[in-house]
Amino acid sequence: MPSTLSPLKAIRLHCLDCVGGSAKLVRYCPCDGVHSTRCQLWPYRFGKRPETTRKRKGERFIKPGLMPDGDVPLETVDSFFEFPST
Known about the structure:
Structural class: mainly alpha
Number of helices: 3
Radius of gyration: 13 Å
């Protein structure tokens, strides 16, 4: 009997597949409607509800336009944000 995924987990897997399996590319996905075409799944790309992501990661990962431009090299993109210590 095949197991089924929750809709949020299925969205996460779709986003990982879309960017070639890189969680970092999912985090900085440019399909926020500002840097590229708007993807309706963009707010759910972490496999969580947007409200949960906002609480855990901050507004910068949910609000379109706060992501770095596509011209920013991925090696330096983490320095683009101030990450809260965990």
